[in-house]
UniProtKB/TrEMBL annotation:
PANTHER family: CBS DOMAIN-CONTAINING PROTEIN CBSX2, CHLOROPLASTIC, CBS DOMAIN-CONTAINING PROTEIN DDB_G0289609. Keywords: CBS domain, Repeat. The keyword Methyltransferase does not apply. Residues 116-174, 199-256, 275-337, 359-413 form the CBS domain. Belongs to the UPF0166 family. This is CBS domain-containing protein. It comes from the Bacteria. SUPFAM superfamilies: CBS-domain pair, GlnB-like. InterPro entries: CBS_dom, CBS_dom_sf, CBS_domain-containing, N-reg_PII-like_a/b, N-reg_PII/ATP_PRibTrfase_C, UPF0166. It comes from Solidesulfovibrio carbinolicus. Pfam families: CBS, DUF190.
């Protein structure tokens, strides 16, 4: 049973003559499932049956005009059915909806529509940037598509766009660490500007039927972390992120390996094959001021703390610096983290404390000979973007991140 996946099967029972806004209810249910990106939907016409009203429906020749029973079956992963059901319930007002858990064996390539997030937030081009930030923070996402009235994608506003073109004072992941007055000040600075002023346009999109390999290749080539997903008409129906693709790859050992042989070929490599070796380090007793300077200078936004023998004992993130500093210092360190100079060179960082006092002692790591499948599993389980790589003695060899794993999947490692 290792190749079988858990799915939910939803059945919608209705009559052929059931209408919603003048259209057959069963047609609208199928369209909604397709728009939502469901794995599949099938409509069956019954030959004989009756419902709660006890009216007999039959397909006998002399009664072809009768209201025949109809059944719509929709199969998908449980979490996607959770998001789809409220929409179906609005359409199937006069019918019966059932749901049951079962196992399925997929013998077809996994495509973008199978892993994308269908419940995607979007904004219009004239949406105020303050509202955009509120939406991103509330939904815990890093980007939002900008669409026109016909749901065609005009562009994408990312956290990076808000930093570089919108003047946002902190990355979205750090925004919650700011004092309330600083967050209000940041929101006020954005107010009056619109999504179309800062969005990346034209947006790079991907079709719902594209393979995960194709999506990963496009992300790597363009340096993107997510792609809006469009249907055959070019309308937005979802968004697929690097994390969505990596999660799908992480399920390969327990899913259908026959469905994704080319997609997962790159994961046969080891951590040492995709290693990042330029990793900033510090000793536990080094001043936090020096640690902050190294962290700010590195795109990894992490400093690995080593003991006298060179073994990994902790790690310092940019969020650790913010948490360590008082409210008076936080605006300064944020300016430093994003390359904005202060008149006082040391104004942006905390001058007291050591690396050992600020570091996290829980360090997620893997051995240098770990297979990328194991690396990926650990990233997903712990919800981390990067893992420290060590040798057999626990000494630092480097780091491996999500981008490196995606490049391996895309065949570019």
């Amino acid at each position: 049973m290792s190749d079988w996946m858990e799915i939910d099967l939803v059945r919608v029972y209705c009559g052929e003559s059931d209408r919603v806004d003048g259209r057959p209810a069963y047609e609208l249910v199928v369209e909604e499932a397709r728009r939502h990106g469901a794995a599949g939907a099938t409509v069956f016409r019954g030959v004989l049956g009756f419902g709660a009203g006890s009216l007999v429906h039959t397909a006998k020749i002399l009664r072809l005009s009768e209201d025949l029973p109809m059944v719509v079956e929709i199969a998908d992963r449980p979490e996607r059915i959770d998001a789809l059901l409220p929409r179906i319930e609005k359409l199937a007002k006069g019918g019966v909806v059932t749901r049951q858990r079962m196992a399925a064996l997929f013998r077809c390539p996994v495509r973008v529509r199978d892993v994308m997030a269908a419940d995607v937030a979007s904004v219009g081009p004239d949406t105020d940037l303050g509202e955009v930030v509120e939406l991103l923070v509330a939904r815990h996402v890093k980007a939002v598509p900008v669409v026109d009235a016909g749901r065609k994608v005009l562009g994408v506003v990312t956290g990076g766009d808000l930093l570089t073109r919108g003047g946002l004072s902190a990355r979205l992941s750090l925004f919650g660490l700011l004092p309330a007055d600083a967050r209000e000040e940041a929101a006020a600075a954005l107010s009056g500007h619109t999504a179309k002023e800062v969005m990346t346009a034209p947006a790079e999109t991907v079709g719902e039927r594209a393979s995960l390999r194709e999506a990963s290749e496009r992300m790597v080539k363009k340096g993107l972390k997510r792609l809006p997903v469009v249907d055959e008409a070019g309308e937005l129906i979802g968004i697929v992120s690097r994390t969505d693709i990596l999660r799908a790859a992480a399920k390969v050992p327990t899913a259908s390996t026959e469905a994704m042989p080319r997609f997962t070929a790159g994961l046969m490599q080891q951590a040492r094959d995709v290693l990042i070796t330029d990793v900033p380090t510090a000793k536990p007793d080094e001043p936090l001021l020096d640690v902050a300077a190294r962290l700010i200078a590195s795109p990894l936004r992490r400093v690995v703390v080593l003991d006298a023998a060179g073994k990994v004992v902790g790690i310092v993130h940019d969020g650790d610096l913010l948490a360590r500093c008082g409210p008076a210092k936080r605006p300064g360190i944020l300016r430093a983290l994003f390359g904005k100079k202060d008149d006082d060179e040391d104004a942006g960082v905390c001058s007291t404390g050591t690396a050992g006092e600020a570091m996290q002692t829980t360090v997620y790591s893997v051995a240098e000979d770990a297979a990328l499948t194991d690396v990926l599993q650990k990233m997903i389980v712990h919800g981390v973007k990067r893992l420290v790589v060590t040798d057999d003695d626990g000494k630092l060899r480097g780091m491996v991140d999500r981008e490196a794993v995606l490049r391996a999947i895309a065949g570019r490692a």
